Amino acid sequence: MTREFISLAEVKKLLAMVAMLSAAACCAQVGVPEADLRVDLTKPALWTVDTVHLGNHQLTLRADATEPTLTIEPLWTAQDRSSEIKGISNVETSRLHIYQLMPVRDCTQVEVEFEVNMPKEYVEEGKMQFVFSLQAGAQGDYLFNGRTFTMADFANSAGRYKKIRIVALDFNEPEDKLRAIERINLLLHRRGSMVSAPIGIRNLGLRFHTTRIVPPAPEAVVVNPKSFYSFAYDNASTISAIAARISDEDLDVGRSLDAKKAALKLSPQWAPGQLPPGHSGKVTLAQPLGGIHNFDRFEVKYAMNIPKVYFDEGKLNLYLFVQAGSAGYGRWSGAERKLATFAGEAGNDVVLTLTDEDFRSHGKKRNQIEVVGLQLIPNGSKVTDPIILKSITVNLPSSSSKQP
Question: Closest Cα partner for 366 from 265, 222, 248?
């Protein structure tokens, strides 16, 4: 029998290959897959606490000294229900929301992996919800894509790390909402939870699968069905058409004809004792237009009368806005109108105007607008005198005549 011997050079090559395979197996065992973007969890300062939409600062963030782990610890207590700070006493609806910025990326084919250590105290209590989301920045109108996990999802992993994998389809959102992602969000929806235990996040990475991305189709041109609308709130029919939104963030308001039967009387319900715990008392009135419109150029006028007592108190704030419907993912563009800017008209009829000029430097896409409206933000106001809304008119001049 003839024996063949392997050269020393070939032995070295085989040993090198074995070492590479062993290293790869080791990495697979510790659960650190390759990613196009690995989120830095070692620097809490990279995360921003977002207090919009019922968010607050009831948390601490810290990095683990032994491994790249972010620890989120809520600062919730049973005494929060009696807090005088709005956003803390609303224990059923408040949330903790942090985000880290990333370079703008198309995430229509994204794959996300990370691990969560959810303490058993939360799982046994069964109230809190954990949300991971990808959110667009200014280029994508801050459109939000979230995946919600209940405590039941962690029933078999309480107190130890659970690997989570999310792909683009798991967000159940249209592709357009994933085109310009810039924020990586972690949210804790309190839902009455009274547990304050540290939650660990590690190995957060994203793969974008760029070769699979399909460019968006051209947007359809919106032709306005009408160029002018006039809504005069002088009868029950027109009053019933303007809606007051009611939610954890929006309060109902009394609506009726005024004594002269010539306008809509708005009777605020934000007096002490009327507000739900922690509610801001914000009122949002929305006037549907009956279809999709292009508000590239527009002028909306609101004929109102705000009693002088609000000006004297100095708390009430006002926003005028236009908003897309579901086809435009609810994109909202609003502009503030401080009472101090028209204090000379306190208690008198006044016309407030919103135009495209209000959004030359900010605001969102306005090519699918279905609603115009206004917001009343009491900021702790104790005044409940009726506010009068006489009419809203909408003028949509041709965009072809727009000046450069």
Answer: 222
Please name the amino acid found at residue 363.
G
> Residue 108, class by beta-carbon neighbours within 10 Å (0-12 exposed, 13-18 middle, 19+ buried)?
buried
Dist. CA 389–CA 287, nearest whole Å = 12
* pLDDT tens profile 343-360: 999 999 999 999 999 998
Q: CA 294 to CA 365: how far, in whole Å?
A: 9
* Full DSSP string of 341-384: GGGGGTTSEEEEEEEGGGGSSS----SSEEEEEEEEE-TT----
List, for residues 61-114, the tens digit of each pLDDT value. 999 878 899 999 999 999 999 998 888 999 999 999 999 999 999 999 999 999
Residues 273/275/279/280 CA torsion (nearest 10 deg): -100
The span from the CA of 345 to the CA of 318, in Å, is: 15
Check: CB of residue 315 under 8 Å from CB of residue 321.
Answer: no
Per-residue CA distances from 289 to 60, 224, 256, 318, 368 (Å): 45, 11, 21, 21, 11
